[in-house]
Amino acid sequence: MEMKKRINLELRNRAPEKVTELVLDNCRSSNGEIEGLNDSFKELQFLSMANVELTSLAKLPTLSKLRKLELSDNVISGGLEVLAERCPNLTYLNLSGNKIKDLGTVEALQNLKNLKSLDLFNCEITNLEDYRDSIFELLQQITYLDGFDQEDNEAPDSEDDDDEGDEDDDDDENEAGPPGEYEEEDDEDDGASDLGEGEEEEEVGLSYLMKEEIQDEEDDDDYVEGGDEEEEGKCSRME
């Protein structure tokens, strides 16, 4: 009696039509079936009933908007066809730690067309030879089994990770500053270096010209001195 009251206490004083997430972990079901959960929870998207000694899904209500269902650590051994009938939009299903033993039981999940992630960890079925390959072949709509895809890539923690990554990229771009600033600085540097090269060329040119003038003066002096000696020689011969 106390067990039944505990699960009803979780559901009491709630407006079922407004509830989108419901966690009933570690409560106790009545006679291995769900108590207090009904069709009025029409907006429910996430439901967790881990470790509530659940043996059957026969009384699971119709929850057309339910996307994630946690049923780990119960004693469910079959009857999974109910899920496709009453929760057709499930994308994530956790049945780890239950009494699921064979592929025939899991075959009932083929009608969950939107199912992307299935967890059967710690169920007897995982001891079957080629367990993973068999499940992926049987349920071709799923991407992840026990948290990993067929190439052993781990499932992401959240669907929002990519969006956060994009925001970080945008922040990095903003911190880097608007394009064009560095280009203008580069242009200025190029202009400065062009000017420096021009000045060096001008200095080299002046030095070269000055050297030419000095050389011309020395040549003129030599020429004059040579002429004077010739004139002195002529005078001596005349005497």
UniProtKB/TrEMBL annotation:
Its main location: cytoplasm. GO terms for molecular function: histone binding; phosphatase inhibitor activity. Keywords: Chaperone, Chromatin regulator, Cytoplasm, Leucine-rich repeat, Nucleus, Repeat. PROSITE patterns: LRR. Residues 148-204, 214-232 have a biased composition (Acidic residues). It comes from the Eukaryota. One of its GO terms (cellular component) is cytoplasm. GO terms for biological process: chromatin organization; regulation of apoptotic process. It is found in: Cytoplasm; Nucleus. Residues 147-239 are annotated as: Disordered. Coiled coil: none annotated. Belongs to the ANP32 family. Multifunctional protein that is involved in the regulation of many processes. Histone chaperone that specifically mediates the genome-wide removal of histone H2A.Z/H2AZ1 from the nucleosome: removes H2A.Z/H2AZ1 from its normal sites of deposition, especially from enhancer and insulator regions. Not involved in deposition of H2A.Z/H2AZ1 in the nucleosome. May stabilize the evicted H2A.Z/H2AZ1-H2B dimer, thus shifting the equilibrium towards dissociation and the off-chromatin state. Inhibits activity of protein phosphatase 2A (PP2A). Does not inhibit protein phosphatase 1. May play a role in cerebellar development and synaptogenesis. This is Acidic leucine-rich nuclear phosphoprotein 32 family member. It comes from Molothrus ater.
